[in-house]
Amino acid sequence: MSPYPRPRWLVTGASGMLGRELTSLLLRRGAAVTALGRGALDITDGVAVRAALARHRPAVVVNCAAWTAVDAAESEPSRAMAVNGDGPRHLAGACRTLDAVLLQLSTDYVFAGSAARPYREDDPTAPRTVYGCTKRAGERAVLSTLPEAGYVVRTAWLYGAGGPNFVAKMIRLEAEQDTVRVVDDQHGQPTWTADLAGRLAALGSAALAGAAPAGVYHATNTGSTTWYGLARETFRLLGADPDRVRPTTSRALARPATRPGYSVLDQPRWREAGMEPLRDWRAALAEAFPPLCGAVGRSAVPRR
């Protein structure tokens, strides 16, 4: 039996898109939650991390804090590593002192992005960007410090109503431009923050109950597409002509950090925790669409 009859959750990065979604979900479920945004807790400050966890004494910590500026990381590697590598290390050390569970969010960028099949949780990592290297450093810090209570949850292509994201951008551009060019040579899995938040809540509870083995889990909506395919589906849900989305290549839209060409994630480990993988990305996007449209001031009713 868990020593925490009503376990307290602590969410770092709580002012971000996923952090807000998770905090809201936990509160709706009646959980005791401490939500700390960057202004309340800088995870790069080890002293502050230890003090915060000692004060709040959580049973589960979910680290949603991250440096997510993929291109900027190429020119500011030290700052990115401080957040993505050192921050999780500080949290893991504090969790070890408290015997707390730590859920660390990670990314598909830890892989090379050149596979011919979906990446499994135990496949070798080989990041090709500074961002991916810093996220892998955070993974390793958590798994080595908390071998029995550390959970790395890799996700990808997040969108939601609580922050800037690709789907919201496409909703805006549909109203502003006749055509939109989107890359069609990057394959991945669009993932709704609400679905991911639900899975994080379930994983944290299962971890406390001893029902989920520690280690790496992949958590994306299933199926796969390209950014071009996601843009076309967004236009379709708006009632707009998907052919207004035109395909282009990564080379044509070159950016400082290389994007993975193929980073689809397989998810067999969920069954070890008594759970199924998340639902198909199309079903999730259809349900997410009304709040997404509302967040950018658009109607979710298809236009005639």
Automatic annotation (TrEMBL):
E.C. no: 1.1.1.133
Boundaries of every RmlD-like substrate binding domain copy: 10-289
Domain of life assignment: Bacteria
Pathway entry: Carbohydrate biosynthesis; dTDP-L-rhamnose biosynthesis
Flavoprotein listed as a keyword: no
Record Pfam families: RmlD_sub_bind
Keyword terms: NADP, Oxidoreductase
Keyword flag Oxidoreductase: yes
InterPro entries (UniProt xref): dTDP_dehydrorham_reduct (IPR005913), NAD(P)-bd_dom_sf (IPR036291), RmlD-like-bd (IPR029903)
Bilayer-spanning residue ranges: none
Function of the protein: Catalyzes the reduction of dTDP-6-deoxy-L-lyxo-4-hexulose to yield dTDP-L-rhamnose.
Family label: Belongs to the dTDP-4-dehydrorhamnose reductase family.
Protein name: dTDP-4-dehydrorhamnose reductase
Native species: Streptomyces rameus
Source taxonomy: Bacteria, Bacillati, Actinomycetota, Actinomycetes, Kitasatosporales
